[in-house]
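Researcher: Let's do a round of design. I'm pasting the structure tokens now; please hold your answer until I've finished.
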């Protein structure tokens, strides 16, 4: 009789196979964590809101200027001023409610509710300035938390 050769059947995985799978899982996990980084997503959301708010304010100023034969709202000067009730550019009564329903407030402010009453004190967190050609620049400030993440530009400014 012929001796039957018995083959050893190995069950399980080799160390190399296990290490390769662990490496692939770690790489995929790192990609997912970077892609869904919540702090970065919130920072991008706030910057999108700032950009929208800046454009809303500029649209209101533009409509006011068009209706008043090129005259700008009274609070706008060549100095960069915060859009606020005291000490800054008080645009509330010029723009609301005819040109914009409410003055938007920066999303990182302590009170993010839009300004709907011009008789109360307010600070939008945004700045406004005109240049020598009467072009208006509205800027949103830099948030310190977002600067630390490296996701926010120094300011979000739009000029028209």
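Researcher: That's everything. Go ahead.
Model: Designed sequence:
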């Amino acid at each position: 009789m012929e001796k039957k050769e018995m083959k050893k059947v190995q069950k399980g995985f080799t160390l190399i196979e296990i290490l390769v799978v662990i490496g692939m899982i770690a790489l995929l996990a790192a990609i997912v964590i970077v892609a869904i980084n919540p702090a970065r997503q919130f920072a991008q959301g706030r910057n999108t809101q700032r950009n929208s708010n800046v454009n809303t304010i500029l649209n209101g100023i533009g409509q006011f200027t068009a209706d008043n034969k090129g005259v700008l709202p009274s609070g706008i000067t060549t100095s960069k001023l915060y859009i606020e009730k005291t000490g800054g550019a008080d645009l509330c009564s010029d723009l609301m409610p005819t040109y914009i329903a409410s003055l938007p407030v920066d999303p990182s402010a302590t009170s993010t509710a839009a300004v709907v009453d011009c008789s109360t004190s307010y600070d939008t967190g945004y700045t406004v300035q005109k240049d020598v050609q009467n072009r208006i620049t509205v800027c949103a400030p830099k948030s310190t938390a977002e600067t630390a993440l490296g996701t926010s530009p120094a300011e979000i400014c739009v000029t028209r």
